[in-house]
Specification:
Elements: H1 8-21, E1 34-45, E2 48-60, E3 68-73, H2 76-81, H3 83-109
Antiparallel strand pairs: 1-2, 2-3
Length: 120
């Protein structure tokens, strides 16, 4: 079977046709940044550290209001014994998450079109 190859001028014609269809404008899609942060509430028992609860943040610079924060308990007994400290740790994590969210929202609201939205 004979191999068929596109000729360079044909590819050039197709490229010009596509540019014409797009109004002559070709541009890079706006960049977005996704941040994922994980942490946990660590308790020392008998000289050993144990992560009693965990926290996770996922946020995209294109939609900072769609931020997702999750929390879970790894060891219910230790969590219940240290619930006050675990709650403080979770509150600190959520405050940090809101700080990142605020920075990304500010970047979206600014007129600065350079760089990646929400870049810290």
């Amino acid at each position: 079977m004979k191999e068929i190859r596109a000729r360079p001028y044909f590819c050039y014609f197709i490229q010009k046709l596509i540019l014409h269809q797009l109004g002559g404008k070709v541009m890079l899609k706006p960049m977005e940044r996704t941040v994922t942060i994980a942490s946990g509430s660590v308790i020392k028992t008998n000289g050993e550290e144990m992560e009693v609860a965990g926290f996770n943040l996922s946020i995209n610079s294109g939609d900072p209001l769609g931020m997702g924060v999750t929390a879970w308990v790894n060891n219910r007994e230790m969590y219940n014994k240290n619930i006050a400290q675990c709650r403080v740790d979770e509150d600190e994590f959520r405050a940090y998450a809101r700080q990142i969210q605020d920075e990304m929202l500010a970047a979206l609201a600014s007129d600065d079109t350079e760089g990646v939205p929400g870049e810290v």
